[in-house]
From TrEMBL:
PANTHER family: BETA-LACTAMASE FAMILY PROTEIN (AFU_ORTHOLOGUE AFUA_5G07500) (PTHR43283:SF3), BETA-LACTAMASE-RELATED (PTHR43283). This is CubicO group peptidase, beta-lactamase class C family. It holds the Pfam family Beta-lactamase. InterPro entries: Beta-lactam-related (IPR001466), Beta-lactam/transpept-like (IPR012338), Diverse_Enzym_Activities (IPR050789). Residues 23-394 form the Beta-lactamase-related domain.
Length: 411
């Protein structure tokens, strides 16, 4: 099992150490001028850690520095893990991608689609086709998030208590039943909209496998991959390693501790969010990226076949469209131009249109607290970045990471 530290010198991995020092200097400026409290980045090549930087404070109030084993809320970086779980079941023949989800979740037997009216009195019509498993994996089901504040359906979610969190006491099954009662934003398959689709997918994993999502993850993914610090909520013995959560707003640009939201990660939640409920470390998540980069296998343990990983990380949007043309206008940490969507991952289709130095076929995602990762099969590269700042659109860190890391590739 790889240690927390560095495995090889940058030059041995085909990386320019001087350029990586520029990366470190750039991240230090974010911390030194107060935009970030602390951060961490791990750069790997061909399954070996070549660069690791930990800087600043994990908890400003406690004056506790970021360490190699700091635990972070990864929020939507949970989604690729849930997608891998679903595709593990798919490889077992448990479902087909075009199966209606109502086969296992009967609450979705008769979805309706919003066509007009306000949140209090929406006008809806029956869905033309059922929500299928493929729709959940690609965020084309017509579901949404209350925190988007773009569509009337977003407001409907908020009125039902679904914004950043969910109504108190609800478990995942109850959340899914509630979402099934709400109108879809569009006809299934017609558009892309970032949504609770992966949470519904997590519930599908539970029903099909007969296990709770945390049990499935622990038994089938985390234990085999040696992801010892990844879970739904941080256990008491790890609280001293947990990073604090901070936020900025237009009127308050300095990071302010968000205790009300942050404390939710200090215990197992009432609902197991396959879309955003996990905490993890940079080491653990890097091991997850290595499994993907290695075609579904790590250290002799195989979760998926190479062909399944390759299939998941292709653009599945109709006609090869990108998110800018097939998706709805949403706030985003990076550009949607030149980026498609696979089965649980954003996929770069055109680096020129994306205006970011990367490779075609690079796949990635990030989390609400500004965490991010990407895997570049063409370069054998994986990068995991951790911090705890909301919203994730506050600074263009994700594009800047690529801008500083790719020039370090010298072979």
């Amino acid at each position: 099992m790889a240690p927390f530290g560095i495995d090889v010198e940058p030059g041995e991995a085909g990386l320019n150490a001087a350029q990586l020092r520029r990366l470190d200097a750039h991240l230090r400026r974010y911390v030194d001028d107060g935009r970030l409290t602390g951060c961490q980045v791990m750069v790997s090549r061909h399954g070996k850690v070549a660069h690791l930087t930990s800087y600043g404070l994990a908890d400003k109030e406690a004056n506790r520095p970021v360490d190699v084993d700091t635990v972070w809320r990864i929020y939507s970086m949970t989604k690729p893990i849930t997608s891998v779980a679903a595709m593990m079941l798919w490889e077992e023949g448990a479902f087909e991608l075009l199966d209606p989800v109502s086969r296992w979740l009967p609450e979705f037997a008769a979805p309706r689609v919003y066509t007009g009216g306000n949140a209090a009195k929406p006008v809806t019509v029956p869905a033309i086709e059922p929500i299928r498993v493929w729709h959940l994996l690609t965020h084309t089901a017509g579901l949404t998030y209350g925190f988007h504040r773009v569509n009337v359906t977003d407001e409907i979610y908020r009125l039902r208590g679904f914004e950043v969190g969910v109504p108190e006491g609800m478990d995942l099954a109850a959340c899914v039943r509630a979402w099934a009662e709400l109108p879809l934003t569009f006809q299934p398959g017609a558009e892309w909209n970032y949504s609770v689709a992966t949470d519904v997918l997590g519930r599908l994993v539970e029903v099909i496998s007969g296990q709770s999502l945390d049990a499935f993850f622990a038994e089938r993914i985390f234990k085999p991959l040696g992801m010892t610090d990844t879970a739904f909520g941080c256990p008491p013995e790890q609280h001293a390693r947990m990073a604090a959560l901070y936020g900025v707003s237009p009127g308050r640009p300095a990071p302010v501790r968000i205790e009300a939201i942050g404390k939710a990660a200090l215990s197992r939640p009432s609902w197991l969010s396959g879309g955003g409920g996990l905490v993890s470390t940079v080491r653990d998540y890097t091991r997850f990226t290595w499994m993907l980069l290695n075609g579904g296998e790590l250290d002799g343990v195989r979760l998926l076949s190479p062909r399944t990983v390759a299939y998941m990380t292709r653009n599945h949007l109709p006609g090869g469209a990108d998110l800018a043309t097939f998706g709805r206008p949403l706030f985003a940490e990076t550009r949607f131009d030149g980026v498609g969507f696979g089965l649980g991952f954003g996929v770069v289709t055109d680096p020129v249109a994306h205006r970011t130095l990367t490779s075609p076929g690079e796949y990635h995602w990030g989390g609400m607290a500004s965490t991010a990762f990407w895997v570049d099969p063409a370069e054998g590269l994986s990068v995991v970045f951790m911090t705890q700042l909301m919203p994730s659109s506050a600074y263009p860190i994700r594009s800047q990471l690529r801008q500083l890391i790719y020039p370090a590739l010298i072979d």
